[in-house]
Amino acid sequence: MAVRQHFQARQNDITLAVFPKSGTTWLKALAFSILHRQHYTPSQNHPLLTSNPHTLVPFLGKAFLDQDLTSNIAHSPRLFSTHTPYHALPPSIKSFAIGCRIVYLCRNPYDTFISAWHFFTKARPDNLEPLSLNDAFDMYCRGVFAYGPFWDHVLGYWKESLERPQKFLFLTYEDLKDNPILHMKRLAEFMGVPFSVEEEKEGLIEEISRLCSINNLRELDVNKTGKTGSLLVNKTLFRKGEVGDWVNSLTPEMVERLDKIIKEKMDGFGLTF
Ligand code: A3P
Hints:
Blueprint: H1 2-6, E1 14-18, H2 24-35, H3 53-56, H4 60-65, E2 79-82, H5 91-94, E3 101-106, H6 109-123, H7 133-141, H8 150-163, E4 168-172, H9 173-178, H10 180-190, H11 197-202, H12 204-211, H13 214-218, H14 221-225, E5 227-228, E6 232-233, H15 252-266
Parallel strand pairs: 1-2, 1-3, 3-4
Antiparallel strand pairs: 5-6
The chain binds adenosine-3'-5'-diphosphate (A3P).
Adenosine-3'-5'-diphosphate binds at residues 18, 20-26, 29, 111, 115, 118, 212-214, 217, 237-241, 245.
């Protein structure tokens, strides 16, 4: 509430908005590396080699409340992230007049749920009973989830992005996996730092893609043994990073139930999963 009331967006701010467990860590790594590539090349002392992406691109609320003006957020353009649903963003971020930009990353609801279940199982305090897959799934289907129901979150940003395409870049985890180079180029262009022909020829996009890949980040000391803040153990952020892993955990009945809900809530808006 404090952030919503007091945060003042600037014209060239870039907000990365993501539903939890949809690829926030990956998008932060990519956006940071693309935006700051004049200062840091992937092969030489890149900050991602020693810092977790969540340290380099802070969550808006945390940065604001900590008055964290020492990190990249102090530079221009400021880059931060949020899980907050669109309707609850600070008004100045949504403002048409200010014109700051929002990158939204969406992931299919099945993988998002499975990823969240694994994550919250690991992050759950020892004094609480484990949350069974069945109970967690039931809550997810009823919309009981951090930052609200999946469908409200995605549609909130999706509808706005259709109305104001110049303010939004809507990406999907699946597209990024399928063709990282193409979507990194879109991201660079949207952030106002398009790759030059020389950079393309030199293979810089591929280099950044490799640097930010889950296989690379997972093996770095900072992500094997480090923590972000007092609670987050970095290694819990890197699991499989695959598309379609849900087939290994969801029963046909679960899929049928979630399919029905997604159809009911999201049909007719032009989004398919
Ligand atoms: P899985 O649990 O399906 O493996 P978030 O960053 O929003 O918390 O999302 C976590 C999901 O993104 C996890 O998915 C995690 O493995 C995956 N992930 C983390 N870093 C990634 C990267 N560099 N590339 C692709 N996926 C990544």
